[in-house]
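Open question from group meeting: does this chain pack into something compact, or does most of it stay loose? Before anyone orders reagents, we agreed to write out a predicted structure and look at it together. Recording both the input and the output here so the notebook holds the full record.
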Amino acid sequence: QLQLVESGGGLVQPGGSLRLSCAASGSTLRYYVIGWFRQAPGKEREWVSCISSTGVSTNYADSVKGRFTISRDNAKNTVYLQMNSLKAEDTGVYYCARDLSGLCNLSPRGYASWGRGTQVTVSS
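Structure tokens returned:
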């Protein structure tokens, strides 16, 4: 059974960068669309980005477009989220999950195998 574990979060100043990793175990993630979500305190979980199984196709929320880059290394069973030019509003817990439909679903309900998340805090 596919299990996902996020890592790479931390405290960073505005304008800084972080790279998040989503590592899979128990099964391969090479056949799945993988999505990244985030959740700020008191807010709903929101879609950030997703990547096709081959890595050829990527999609981003407007709020992160041009600043975040999603990628994957299927040989390492890992998906990454490079986050640059971070802003205070990027603060939250970041989660990765596998899409159930084979498409880039924007709703959390369309995903499974959620990790426990990694905290990203952008503050001076």
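Observations to bring back to the group:
The mean pLDDT is 96.
The longest strand covers residues 18-25.
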